[in-house]
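The freezer alarm interrupted the setup, so I double-checked each line after restarting. Inputs confirmed:
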Amino acid sequence: MFKRGACLLLSGPSGAGKSTLIGELLREFDDIYFSISTTTRKRREGEVEGRDYYFVSPQEFREGIEKGLFLEWAEVHGNYYGTSLQPVLQALEEGKLVLFDIDVQGFLSVKKSPIASVTTSVFITPPSLEELKRRLEERGSDDPATIERRLENARREIEYMGEYDYILVNDDLERSRREIVAFGTVARLKRDREEVEAFIERWIHTH
Amino acid sequence: MFKRGACLLLSGPSGAGKSTLIGELLREFDDIYFSISTTTRKRREGEVEGRDYYFVSPQEFREGIEKGLFLEWAEVHGNYYGTSLQPVLQALEEGKLVLFDIDVQGFLSVKKSPIASVTTSVFITPPSLEELKRRLEERGSDDPATIERRLENARREIEYMGEYDYILVNDDLERSRREIVAFGTVARLKRDREEVEAFIERWIHTH
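Predicted 3D structure, all chains:
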């Protein structure tokens, strides 16, 4: 039958509840490969190489760009961030569900990449900007300037939500949990053309 | 938030197990509108108007075609079959999940229709043509000539499965049940551009 995996790509503003829902997916499914970004920014206290990020030098990163090793990459505040293609392709080959937690720019790059045809994209949003502000303030981990910047980012990102396959409004955690697990189930039923053609070929000729 | 419904469109050869999976959806969700076809063919024993089909005269059907009342229609063996647009639009307006059990030709028409942007399409297939033959023979409701015709149709329809958003290989009923219910959950998170734009507008201005 079908052996290759597929991708589930999640975007949404900080404070939308993405991390909680990703935790839910990782608890529910044991065959998920959670895509880890590569970055040139300094490792922060508590961050682990290969869990939070792959940390590389700017030169290594630029070489990777030139060799086309990145599925997507961006420069943010003088640091590079990107997703290496190779581990994603390997996970797909192993039949895994590849999970992306990625910003809008990254999504737009993935949309033009070879894995677009096996990717289900979901934009996760809080019900309103007001509610997002309330959540960020309640969380208490950001100073007012950071919160203002996050809200500004959210305002910019939300404009792109129509580009995603699906929109999940996270206003009821129980429902959102059910929905994200359902995405974990169906996303893997997206198949690339090559595998579909091989399936049809086999299907017809077993008669 | 979002008020309008969305569509889940299922195709697949007779004997793929579609009816069982549709029964599962109807049991699981109480807000599904199961789209009923309109036909000019004679009503058979046991068939109920408005449950199995809407039965109309050829003249009524042709008038409907001229007035653009059909989402899709086809002429098969001298009879017309089609899906009226109006009840579908009303169900969407009421926020329901509209369920289509439709052949490949119908799907290709829906793909070009105004509801395409809110439709998740799934092709349901048995694991092989051999297995399909076995199931049809075991079912015992068709004579050999009908089985041969069904297999011929299946061979023709399977060629189009790559056109669908997702492919469900029905080789394990328990897994297929979980998958179809997951589709019933996520399909409604597909939103039309108009509603997305209104959401963004509201979202930004609640601040």
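Quick read of the result. The domain at 6-35+95-205 of chain B is CATH 3.40.50.300 (Rossmann fold).
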